[in-house]
Design brief:
This protein has 92 residues and is mostly helical. The protein is 78% helix and 0% strand. It has two domains: 38 residues; 52 residues, no CATH class. Helix 3 packs antiparallel against helix 4.
Length: 92
C-alpha cells in the first residue's frame, strides 16, 4: 500500500491515473454504443487490416507508423461501404 501512495505522490502519476479513469468510463460507454449499433466487429476488422498494413510496410522496407494511417482509413471506408450495402438490401 505504501508503494502505491509513493507512486501517486508524483504529479504525472496522478494525471495518468485520472486519465486512465476518464478513458475507462468514456470507452466503456462507447463500447456499449458500438454493440447496440451492431458495429462490434468493425473495430476488430480495422485493427486486423492495420496489422496487415504494418506487416506489408516492414516487408517493403518503409517506415510502418507513417504508412499506418492511410491503410486504416482505406479499410475503414471499405468496411463502412460494405455496412451501407448490407443495410440497403435489408427487407423492412
Amino acid at each position: 500500500m505504501d508503494a502505491i501512495l509513493t507512486m501517486l505522490s508524483y504529479p504525472f502519476m496522478q494525471r495518468a491515473f485520472l486519465a486512465g479513469i476518464l478513458l475507462g468510463l468514456l470507452l466503456a460507454s462507447l463500447g456499449v454504443l458500438a454493440t447496440l449499433r451492431k458495429m462490434a466487429f468493425f473495430g476488430e476488422g480495422v485493427a486486423h487490416a492495420s496489422l496487415a498494413g504494418i506487416s506489408l510496410a516492414i516487408l517493403a522496407g518503409v517506415a510502418p507508423i507513417p504508412s499506418l494511417s492511410p491503410g486504416q482509413y482505406l479499410s475503414q471506408s471499405q468496411f463502412s461501404g460494405l455496412n451501407g450495402l448490407q443495410n440497403f438490401h435489408q427487407i423492412p
